Amino acid sequence: MTAVTSTRTSSARTHAPFVGRDRLAALEQVAARYAVAITPAVAELIDATDAHDPIARQFVPDARELDRRDEENGDPIGDAAHTPVEGVVHRYPDRVLLKVVNACAVYCRFCFRREMVGPGRGALSGAALATALDYIRRNSQIWEVILTGGDPLVLSPRRISHVMAALAAIDHVKVIRVHTRLPVAAPEKISAALVRALRTDKATFVVLHANHPRELGKKARAACARLVDAGIPMLSQSVLLRGVNDDVETLGALMRALAECRIKPYYLHHADLAPGTAHFRTTIAEGQDLMRALHGRYSGLCQPCYVLDIPGGFGKSPVGPRYLGADGRTIEDFNGRQHDYLPPQ
Ligand SMILES: *Cc1c(COP(=O)(O)O)cnc(C)c1O
Ligand code: SF4
């Protein structure tokens, strides 16, 4: 497994970066097309002497982003088809996304919503937020509201507290989930006021987006500890990215770092078909091999669920690997050995 995955990493490293003026012109074209932002906290994590630095790869624009493939789509997971009112995505009966803001602290080069996010694409207007909250109020099957964007935690604690209080006041909403990259991108923004703003009498989970173990440095760990110490359970989501975390040592170290922060790894996303991101995508077979290797070597606390968001808006599905034989009579153990579960008939 190690041999396979390290070959994979080195193949990702055969793309020599462009240099000189050509590169600059290409990068200007990328920046004109997609938002770019790197915070001081993220800049600190970048090793400028490493041409293949996994942090830089996630945030520094690359000429390959101009290479748009036929299979790629500006709305890769089909949000638009499930948007009943501005800011709400209602794909599953019992839960909705509430996109409160379309800006982020950093812009990930592989972002699945890269056509929708950017600076100056501000928060939902007061009227749009009121309409979105009305929609949630009127639909009593909505058990959970997921604040996302963009990054909802770039809003001021005052605005976050307003949204949280409005959601908590809806009887049928029992769980509020917040998807964010801020504890990594700007840990200093996870202030006491922000933590207070997130606390209501409803169960609130914070889901951190992190893709490389180095993202969980001292400051990010302290920011996560402030949330968890306040009684807010944390989960994580990571994107499987070529040249960033597509080897078992890196992926395992990421999952361990998360567990050490009291963050339970939740999803490992197969990279979506967002425009100009082909250089980040692995195959699903590679992802399954990595998941098998994780299962073989790491604690159950370090096992995310590997999911694919089905293009077209059909939702997420786990994509394996499978351990139970198709006939339900054999099962594979963590060493890759097969066992009979029920005797063959
Ligand atoms: C991802 C997503 C969710 C959350 O899905 P879970 O499997 O519950 O984490 C909810 N709504 C939409 C539209 C989504 O894309
Ligand atoms: S933080 Fe999330 S929404 Fe923002 S650019 Fe990164 S992946 Fe996209």
Question: Could you characterize the architecture of this molecule?
Answer:
With 345 residues, the protein is α/β, with parallel strands linked by helices. The protein folds into 2 domains: 12-66, no CATH class; 80-318, TIM Barrel (Alpha-Beta Barrel). 32% of the residues lie in helices and 17% in strands. The protein is built from 11 helices and 11 strands. The protein has helices spanning 2-12, 20-33, 40-45, 54-59, 126-138, 157-168, 182-185, 192-198, 218-229, 248-260, 284-297; strands spanning 88-92, 95-99, 144-148, 175-180, 203-209, 234-240, 263-270, 305-309, 316-318, 330-332, 338-340. The strands form 2 sheets. A 9-stranded mixed sheet has the order 1-2-3-4-5-6-7-8-9. Strands 10-11 form a two-stranded antiparallel ribbon. Strand 5, helix 9 and strand 6 (234-240) form a beta-alpha-beta unit. Helix 6 (157-168) runs parallel beside helix 8. The radius of gyration is 21 Å and the shape is globular. It binds pyridoxal-5'-phosphate and iron/sulfur cluster (SF4). The site of pyridoxal-5'-phosphate has 8 residues, from strand 1 and strand 2.
